[in-house]
Amino acid sequence: MQRRARGLHQGLLFLFFQIMQVGITNVPPVTLACIVLNIWLFLNPVKPIYWLCLSVESCYEKKDWQRLLLSPFHHADDWHLYFNMVSMLWKGLTLERRLGSFWFAYIIAVFSLLTGVVYLALEYTVAELLDQREFKVYCAIGFSGVLFALKVLSNNYNPGGHTNIMGMYIPNKYACWVELVMIHVLSPRTSFAGHLAGIIVGLMYTLGPLKMIMEVCAGVLPLNAHYPRQQHYYNNMGYSGYQENLFDRQPYQEIPRNYDIYTAGFTEEEQLERALRNSLRDRGGVNNGPPPYGFNIYPEDEMRRQRLNRFDRH
Protein backbone atom coordinates (compact mmCIF):
# COMPACT_ATOMS: atom_id res chain seq x y z
CA MET A 1 0.00 0.00 0.00
CA GLN A 2 1.34 3.43 -0.96
CA ARG A 3 0.82 6.82 0.60
CA ARG A 4 -0.37 9.67 -1.57
CA ALA A 5 2.02 12.59 -1.85
CA ARG A 6 1.60 15.09 0.96
CA GLY A 7 -0.01 18.40 0.21
CA LEU A 8 -3.13 20.43 0.72
CA HIS A 9 -6.12 18.48 -0.56
CA GLN A 10 -8.79 21.17 -0.79
CA GLY A 11 -11.46 18.75 -1.97
CA LEU A 12 -10.84 16.58 1.07
CA LEU A 13 -11.16 19.57 3.38
CA PHE A 14 -14.45 20.57 1.77
CA LEU A 15 -15.69 17.01 2.13
CA PHE A 16 -14.88 16.97 5.86
CA PHE A 17 -16.63 20.32 6.22
CA GLN A 18 -19.83 19.07 4.60
CA ILE A 19 -19.86 15.90 6.70
CA MET A 20 -19.45 17.95 9.88
CA GLN A 21 -22.23 20.32 8.81
CA VAL A 22 -24.61 17.40 8.37
CA GLY A 23 -23.36 15.98 11.67
CA ILE A 24 -21.34 12.81 11.69
CA THR A 25 -23.84 11.15 14.04
CA ASN A 26 -26.62 11.88 11.55
CA VAL A 27 -24.92 10.04 8.70
CA PRO A 28 -26.20 6.43 8.47
CA PRO A 29 -23.51 3.86 9.35
CA VAL A 30 -23.04 2.19 5.96
CA THR A 31 -22.95 5.53 4.16
CA LEU A 32 -20.37 6.80 6.62
CA ALA A 33 -18.30 3.62 6.35
CA CYS A 34 -18.32 3.84 2.55
CA ILE A 35 -17.15 7.47 2.63
CA VAL A 36 -14.43 6.67 5.18
CA LEU A 37 -13.23 3.71 3.06
CA ASN A 38 -12.96 5.90 -0.04
CA ILE A 39 -11.08 8.59 1.89
CA TRP A 40 -8.69 6.02 3.37
CA LEU A 41 -7.95 4.47 -0.03
CA PHE A 42 -7.49 7.93 -1.53
CA LEU A 43 -4.83 8.73 1.07
CA ASN A 44 -3.38 5.20 1.03
CA PRO A 45 -4.00 3.69 -2.42
CA VAL A 46 -3.37 -0.02 -2.75
CA LYS A 47 -1.41 0.56 -5.97
CA PRO A 48 -0.64 3.43 -8.33
CA ILE A 49 -3.80 4.56 -10.10
CA TYR A 50 -2.73 3.15 -13.47
CA TRP A 51 -2.65 -0.32 -11.95
CA LEU A 52 -6.11 0.10 -10.43
CA CYS A 53 -8.25 1.53 -13.23
CA LEU A 54 -10.63 -0.72 -15.13
CA SER A 55 -10.25 -1.68 -18.79
CA VAL A 56 -10.98 -4.64 -21.04
CA GLU A 57 -7.29 -5.07 -21.75
CA SER A 58 -6.27 -5.15 -18.09
CA CYS A 59 -9.10 -7.35 -16.83
CA TYR A 60 -10.22 -9.60 -19.65
CA GLU A 61 -7.01 -9.99 -21.63
CA LYS A 62 -4.45 -9.77 -18.80
CA LYS A 63 -6.73 -11.45 -16.24
CA ASP A 64 -6.20 -8.73 -13.63
CA TRP A 65 -9.67 -9.24 -12.15
CA GLN A 66 -8.86 -7.60 -8.82
CA ARG A 67 -9.43 -4.26 -10.56
CA LEU A 68 -13.16 -5.01 -10.52
CA LEU A 69 -13.04 -4.82 -6.72
CA LEU A 70 -10.53 -1.99 -6.33
CA SER A 71 -11.33 0.54 -9.05
CA PRO A 72 -14.70 1.81 -7.69
CA PHE A 73 -13.13 2.79 -4.35
CA HIS A 74 -10.16 4.74 -5.70
CA HIS A 75 -10.19 8.25 -7.14
CA ALA A 76 -7.94 10.28 -9.38
CA ASP A 77 -7.64 13.35 -7.19
CA ASP A 78 -9.23 15.11 -4.22
CA TRP A 79 -11.95 16.87 -6.26
CA HIS A 80 -12.91 13.63 -7.95
CA LEU A 81 -13.27 12.15 -4.45
CA TYR A 82 -15.14 15.20 -3.14
CA PHE A 83 -17.91 15.28 -5.74
CA ASN A 84 -18.46 11.54 -5.62
CA MET A 85 -18.57 11.35 -1.84
CA VAL A 86 -20.86 14.38 -1.47
CA SER A 87 -23.21 12.67 -3.91
CA MET A 88 -22.90 9.47 -1.85
CA LEU A 89 -23.72 11.44 1.30
CA TRP A 90 -26.93 12.82 -0.24
CA LYS A 91 -28.06 9.45 -1.54
CA GLY A 92 -27.13 7.56 1.61
CA LEU A 93 -29.12 9.91 3.84
CA THR A 94 -32.30 8.89 2.04
CA LEU A 95 -31.70 5.43 0.62
CA GLU A 96 -30.07 3.80 3.64
CA ARG A 97 -32.83 4.99 5.95
CA ARG A 98 -35.44 3.77 3.51
CA LEU A 99 -33.91 0.36 2.80
CA GLY A 100 -32.12 -0.39 6.07
CA SER A 101 -28.39 -0.61 6.66
CA PHE A 102 -27.98 -4.32 5.87
CA TRP A 103 -29.74 -4.14 2.52
CA PHE A 104 -28.05 -0.86 1.58
CA ALA A 105 -24.61 -2.36 2.27
CA TYR A 106 -25.58 -5.37 0.16
CA ILE A 107 -26.65 -3.06 -2.68
CA ILE A 108 -23.38 -1.11 -2.53
CA ALA A 109 -21.34 -4.34 -2.72
CA VAL A 110 -23.34 -5.81 -5.61
CA PHE A 111 -23.55 -2.54 -7.56
CA SER A 112 -19.81 -1.92 -7.16
CA LEU A 113 -19.04 -5.26 -8.79
CA LEU A 114 -21.78 -5.24 -11.41
CA THR A 115 -21.10 -1.75 -12.73
CA GLY A 116 -17.55 -2.86 -13.49
CA VAL A 117 -18.75 -6.00 -15.25
CA VAL A 118 -21.29 -4.07 -17.34
CA TYR A 119 -18.68 -1.41 -18.14
CA LEU A 120 -16.30 -4.07 -19.48
CA ALA A 121 -19.11 -5.63 -21.52
CA LEU A 122 -20.02 -2.26 -23.05
CA GLU A 123 -16.44 -1.37 -23.97
CA TYR A 124 -15.78 -4.83 -25.40
CA THR A 125 -18.97 -4.76 -27.47
CA VAL A 126 -18.25 -1.32 -28.92
CA ALA A 127 -14.65 -2.29 -29.67
CA GLU A 128 -15.77 -5.39 -31.55
CA LEU A 129 -18.62 -3.70 -33.44
CA LEU A 130 -16.50 -0.75 -34.56
CA ASP A 131 -13.27 -2.71 -34.84
CA GLN A 132 -11.58 -0.08 -32.66
CA ARG A 133 -9.14 -1.58 -30.20
CA GLU A 134 -8.72 1.67 -28.25
CA PHE A 135 -12.06 1.01 -26.54
CA LYS A 136 -10.45 -2.03 -24.94
CA VAL A 137 -7.66 0.12 -23.53
CA TYR A 138 -9.77 2.96 -22.12
CA CYS A 139 -9.26 2.86 -18.37
CA ALA A 140 -11.85 4.17 -15.88
CA ILE A 141 -11.76 4.62 -12.13
CA GLY A 142 -14.07 6.00 -9.45
CA PHE A 143 -17.38 5.54 -7.68
CA SER A 144 -19.60 7.49 -10.10
CA GLY A 145 -20.92 4.37 -11.86
CA VAL A 146 -22.31 3.13 -8.54
CA LEU A 147 -23.75 6.60 -7.88
CA PHE A 148 -25.64 6.54 -11.17
CA ALA A 149 -27.13 3.18 -10.18
CA LEU A 150 -28.16 4.62 -6.81
CA LYS A 151 -29.65 7.64 -8.57
CA VAL A 152 -31.88 5.27 -10.58
CA LEU A 153 -33.07 3.75 -7.28
CA SER A 154 -33.67 7.14 -5.71
CA ASN A 155 -35.67 8.37 -8.71
CA ASN A 156 -37.63 5.13 -8.76
CA TYR A 157 -38.84 5.81 -5.22
CA ASN A 158 -39.94 9.32 -6.27
CA PRO A 159 -41.54 8.72 -9.68
CA GLY A 160 -43.63 11.88 -9.74
CA GLY A 161 -40.80 14.23 -8.87
CA HIS A 162 -38.59 16.41 -11.03
CA THR A 163 -34.84 17.04 -11.09
CA ASN A 164 -33.24 20.38 -11.88
CA ILE A 165 -30.50 19.82 -14.47
CA MET A 166 -28.86 22.93 -15.90
CA GLY A 167 -31.99 24.95 -15.20
CA MET A 168 -34.30 22.38 -16.80
CA TYR A 169 -36.82 20.50 -14.66
CA ILE A 170 -36.69 16.92 -15.90
CA PRO A 171 -39.08 14.17 -14.72
CA ASN A 172 -37.21 11.78 -12.48
CA LYS A 173 -37.67 8.82 -14.81
CA TYR A 174 -35.65 10.65 -17.50
CA ALA A 175 -33.25 12.57 -15.23
CA CYS A 176 -30.45 9.98 -15.28
CA TRP A 177 -30.37 9.89 -19.08
CA VAL A 178 -30.32 13.66 -19.41
CA GLU A 179 -27.60 13.95 -16.79
CA LEU A 180 -25.58 11.24 -18.53
CA VAL A 181 -25.55 13.21 -21.78
CA MET A 182 -25.05 16.63 -20.19
CA ILE A 183 -22.06 15.52 -18.11
CA HIS A 184 -20.39 13.94 -21.13
CA VAL A 185 -20.98 17.04 -23.26
CA LEU A 186 -19.64 19.41 -20.61
CA SER A 187 -16.77 17.15 -19.51
CA PRO A 188 -15.77 14.86 -22.38
CA ARG A 189 -13.07 13.15 -20.33
CA THR A 190 -15.66 11.54 -18.09
CA SER A 191 -16.29 7.85 -18.64
CA PHE A 192 -19.55 7.72 -20.59
CA ALA A 193 -19.56 3.92 -20.56
CA GLY A 194 -18.92 3.85 -16.80
CA HIS A 195 -21.88 6.11 -16.09
CA LEU A 196 -24.09 4.23 -18.56
CA ALA A 197 -23.13 0.97 -16.84
CA GLY A 198 -24.42 2.40 -13.56
CA ILE A 199 -27.76 3.32 -15.11
CA ILE A 200 -28.09 -0.17 -16.59
CA VAL A 201 -27.36 -1.81 -13.23
CA GLY A 202 -29.91 0.47 -11.54
CA LEU A 203 -32.54 -0.53 -14.11
CA MET A 204 -31.65 -4.18 -13.63
CA TYR A 205 -32.57 -3.72 -9.97
CA THR A 206 -35.72 -1.60 -10.36
CA LEU A 207 -37.16 -3.18 -13.53
CA GLY A 208 -35.26 -6.42 -13.96
CA PRO A 209 -34.61 -9.56 -11.91
CA LEU A 210 -31.60 -8.30 -9.97
CA LYS A 211 -33.46 -7.51 -6.76
CA MET A 212 -35.12 -10.91 -6.72
CA ILE A 213 -31.80 -12.65 -7.35
CA MET A 214 -30.18 -10.68 -4.54
CA GLU A 215 -32.95 -11.67 -2.13
CA VAL A 216 -32.54 -15.34 -3.02
CA CYS A 217 -28.74 -15.19 -2.72
CA ALA A 218 -28.94 -13.43 0.63
CA GLY A 219 -31.43 -15.99 1.90
CA VAL A 220 -33.48 -13.17 3.41
CA LEU A 221 -36.95 -14.02 2.17
CA PRO A 222 -38.70 -16.38 -0.24
CA LEU A 223 -39.50 -15.15 -3.72
CA ASN A 224 -43.11 -14.27 -3.02
CA ALA A 225 -42.36 -12.02 -0.04
CA HIS A 226 -41.27 -8.43 0.23
CA TYR A 227 -38.09 -7.29 1.88
CA PRO A 228 -38.95 -5.54 5.18
CA ARG A 229 -38.71 -1.81 4.75
CA GLN A 230 -38.08 0.77 7.42
CA GLN A 231 -41.33 1.63 9.16
CA HIS A 232 -41.66 5.16 10.46
CA TYR A 233 -44.15 7.64 11.76
CA TYR A 234 -44.10 11.41 11.98
CA ASN A 235 -44.31 13.57 15.05
CA ASN A 236 -43.59 17.21 15.72
CA MET A 237 -39.87 16.50 16.10
CA GLY A 238 -39.49 14.86 12.67
CA TYR A 239 -39.41 11.28 11.43
CA SER A 240 -38.71 8.48 13.83
CA GLY A 241 -39.24 4.76 13.90
CA TYR A 242 -37.36 1.47 13.58
CA GLN A 243 -34.77 0.47 11.05
CA GLU A 244 -35.55 -3.13 10.28
CA ASN A 245 -33.09 -5.48 8.67
CA LEU A 246 -31.73 -8.96 9.05
CA PHE A 247 -29.53 -8.34 12.06
CA ASP A 248 -30.99 -5.62 14.26
CA ARG A 249 -33.96 -3.46 14.99
CA GLN A 250 -32.47 -0.40 16.58
CA PRO A 251 -34.62 2.70 17.06
CA TYR A 252 -33.26 5.93 15.71
CA GLN A 253 -34.33 9.54 15.80
CA GLU A 254 -33.66 11.79 12.85
CA ILE A 255 -32.76 15.27 14.01
CA PRO A 256 -34.12 17.97 11.70
CA ARG A 257 -31.34 20.13 10.34
CA ASN A 258 -31.14 23.12 8.03
CA TYR A 259 -29.06 21.79 5.15
CA ASP A 260 -29.25 25.17 3.40
CA ILE A 261 -26.44 26.27 5.73
CA TYR A 262 -23.87 24.36 3.69
CA THR A 263 -25.68 23.88 0.36
CA ALA A 264 -26.84 27.50 -0.08
CA GLY A 265 -30.28 26.06 -0.79
CA PHE A 266 -29.07 24.15 -3.89
CA THR A 267 -29.99 20.55 -4.62
CA GLU A 268 -27.32 17.98 -5.41
CA GLU A 269 -27.86 18.43 -9.15
CA GLU A 270 -27.66 22.22 -8.87
CA GLN A 271 -24.38 21.95 -6.95
CA LEU A 272 -22.95 19.69 -9.64
CA GLU A 273 -24.15 22.10 -12.34
CA ARG A 274 -22.32 25.00 -10.68
CA ALA A 275 -19.20 22.90 -10.30
CA LEU A 276 -19.27 21.89 -13.96
CA ARG A 277 -19.71 25.50 -15.06
CA ASN A 278 -16.76 26.54 -12.89
CA SER A 279 -14.73 23.68 -14.35
CA LEU A 280 -15.46 24.89 -17.88
CA ARG A 281 -14.49 28.45 -17.00
CA ASP A 282 -11.20 27.19 -15.57
CA ARG A 283 -10.31 25.61 -18.91
CA GLY A 284 -8.96 28.89 -20.18
CA GLY A 285 -5.57 27.48 -19.14
CA VAL A 286 -4.20 23.98 -19.24
CA ASN A 287 -6.37 21.53 -17.36
CA ASN A 288 -4.12 18.82 -16.01
CA GLY A 289 -6.69 17.35 -13.68
CA PRO A 290 -9.72 15.17 -14.28
CA PRO A 291 -13.24 16.55 -14.46
CA PRO A 292 -15.09 16.66 -11.15
CA TYR A 293 -17.67 13.99 -11.92
CA GLY A 294 -16.28 10.68 -13.05
CA PHE A 295 -12.88 10.02 -14.57
CA ASN A 296 -11.58 8.26 -17.66
CA ILE A 297 -7.91 7.57 -18.29
CA TYR A 298 -7.12 7.69 -21.96
CA PRO A 299 -4.92 4.97 -23.41
CA GLU A 300 -2.10 7.30 -24.45
CA ASP A 301 -1.92 8.63 -20.87
CA GLU A 302 -1.66 5.12 -19.50
CA MET A 303 1.00 4.03 -21.99
CA ARG A 304 3.01 7.19 -21.36
CA ARG A 305 2.85 6.61 -17.59
CA GLN A 306 3.87 3.00 -17.99
CA ARG A 307 6.84 4.00 -20.14
CA LEU A 308 7.92 6.51 -17.49
CA ASN A 309 7.56 3.91 -14.76
CA ARG A 310 9.65 1.42 -16.73
CA PHE A 311 12.28 4.11 -17.21
CA ASP A 312 12.29 4.95 -13.50
CA ARG A 313 12.86 1.33 -12.57
CA HIS A 314 15.96 1.03 -14.70
Structural class: mainly alpha
Write the element-wise H/E pattern from the N-terminal end onward.
Answer: HHHHHHHEHEEHHHEEEHHEH
How many strands appear in the DSSP assignment? 7
Radius of gyration in whole Å, from Cα?
20 Å
How many separate helices? 14
Give the rounded overall mean pLDDT. Answer: 76
Uncertain segments are 221-265, 278-295, 298-314
Structure description:
Helix content is 57%, strand content 9%. It is mostly helical. The C terminus is likely disordered.
Secondary structure elements and pairings:
Elements: H1 10-22, H2 29-43, H3 56-61, H4 66-70, H5 78-99, H6 101-130, H7 134-137, E1 139-140, H8 144-156, E2 162-165, E3 168-171, H9 172-186, H10 192-206, H11 210-218, E4 231-235, E5 238-244, E6 249-253, H12 260-263, H13 268-281, E7 296-297, H14 299-313
Antiparallel strand pairs: 1-7, 2-3, 4-5, 5-6
Helix pairs in contact: 1-5, 2-5, 5-6, 5-8, 6-10, 8-9, 8-10, 9-10
Top keywords for this entry?
single chain, 314 residues, mainly alpha, three-stranded antiparallel beta sheet, globular, disordered C terminus
